[in-house]
Amino acid sequence: MTTETRTEAIGILGKSKGELQLISADTETQVRSVSMTFRDLAGDADAILNLAGSIVGCVENENVSSILPKVQTLSNTARQFIGERLQAITGILEMVAVEAKVLHELSLVTGQQAEIALKTKALSVLTNVEVAHLGAVGMGFQYLAHELAEFSKSLMEDAQALESHTSAQKIAIEETRRVLSVELPRSRENLARIEAGLDNDLASLESSLIRLSSTPAQFRMGVEDIAQQIAGVVSAIQSHDITRQQIEHVQAAFDLISEKVRGHENSAQAANGELSQAYAGLTIQIYQLRSIKVTVESWTSQIKSCMGGIFRVSASELVGIGPLVLEQERQVSSQLAHIEMLERESLAYSARIQRTLQGVSSLMQFVGEYVQRSNSIRDRLRLLSFNSIIEASHLGIQAGAVLAIAKTIKEISVEWSKITERSGLAMEEVQALVRQTNKTMEAFSGASDEKLEQAQSQTRGGLDNLRTAAAFAAKQSQEMEAITGKMQSRSTEVANSDGLLDACSNRIDAILAQLESVRNDWEADRPDVKRGYDPTEVTQLFAESYSTEMERDVLRAALRGEPLPVAQQNLQGNSAELF
Amino acid sequence: MKRILAVDDSTSVRQMVNFTLGKAGYEVVEAVDGKDGLAKITGGKFDAIITDLNMPNMDGIQMINAVRKVPGYAFVPILMLTTESQAEKKDEGRKAGATGWIVKPFNADQLISVIQKLVK
Questions:
Q1: pTM confidence score
Q2: Distance CA A168, CA A355 (A)
Q3: For residue A268, is pLDDT > 90?
Q4: Do B104 and A242 touch (CB under 8 A)?
């Protein structure tokens, strides 16, 4: 080996030692800075854990998870409420059509009744004429003439009253029919929209409540995850100290190798052995440096990943617990708002429907009284017809005209019976209508409203609890967000340190390149340099200061020319062995 | 509050011991080597000592030998926290009076648990 080659090798070893010294100092500075930032970050994570824990505690205290069954009951009741009302509105439209038909029938009856009233009046006049014609004999028919006049008057008044009532009712019914025909599709649409709104709210409420119910477990997982990440950083930061010691050992070995190279220069006899030992030592240091590089990359990456993990769990998963509670509160409020809209919609219909139903009831009452009066008139007409026929028979041939009147009265009586029958049928139809109406009324009854109100009240109670939890969560979330902001800036600091630590890897690569070049020169200069040393001697020489199993394993691999042993990075650190 | 003395020439290791045990409610006092550790021991009362093995000025074994002679420290738990894992070294530590041995890096939970056990 030439003096120049030796000098160059010693120079490179010295320079490498100096560069390693700088790397060691730089990593020490960076790790110290990372360590400080980590302590702050861990403190922030602790604060976030406390805040998230208090939200989870509040959610549990306020029994928020019990709100879902309440909202489900409310939703089902509201859906039933909507269904009943939709059915009732349809029924009412049908009912209105039937009522219109009944009113038409009554109009016909009114017309016939007016005709009969006129006929009766004419008969009364004819009877009076005949009474005058018969003189004293016909005095018995004076009562008949008076009765007929009274009937006529009464029938006319009834006919007018019925006509007036049915006309007024017809107008009201037409108006209701017109309005309901227009409003029914709109109402269906509105109610369907409300129902869909309820369904959507319930679906998202259900999904977020499921998420909310998983928050205690999520929180526990977050706590465990952060603890694990913290343990990872604690372990990785300590690994830096192991690296520092390994670098010191490599630096010491460089001095030893330089001495051997110098020894080769001074003593020609021992030249071969000394240079071979220096060569073996250089090979070992190349292996050690490669191992150090892998280790530095490993703990740097672990610091990066675990710090990132602390930030990720703290900033997203745990901070997300608060907004989840707030979202819940918003959804339940929206559900209740939908129900309130439903109530308003229903209330508007109730007023209209009540009016329609009142009209039907009043019609029934009126027709009932009318039918009663008709029955009474029919009976009196029958009696009158019977009496007049008997009286006319007593008078014999003299009462031919009266007999004809009596027969006409009988005919009118039959006709009246038919009208009464028609009125009775109309009455039955109105009664059926009233029964249907009463059934329809049930949908709008207090009992139905009460069920909905009860469900609403329970949900409102749940909502109050949720609001308490939400208000608490909002406050805690604000604090969490502020802490997250701080963590964000700390993460940036760590990222800067990570960059500098990553650069160490390149610096070690540069040293390795120079050392490998020296070794190649030696091999080229003295091919037998690889075989001229005793492994046991070399081991004693270089392994004396080794303090880790890894260093010893690497040395063995270097001397045997084996691949670099894979460093078993202990992410969680080692446990204690008590004596 | 129980007091723990952490002796290590590595700042980052001392910081990690301080952080881990501090979080668990202990007061941790740091010393940069065996000599510094011994000075702090004679100047105050500690419930446990955690020490590195290889340190400048005075190593861990030398310090343990000296600490055991300090009045009141004959039975104070001393944990060795070192990169060394060789049986001979452990035996040396045990003979000097160490209570236990942890190979670096330590597991944070394990360290807390063993300290809790030792300083009950």
A1: 0.66
A2: 14
A3: no
A4: yes
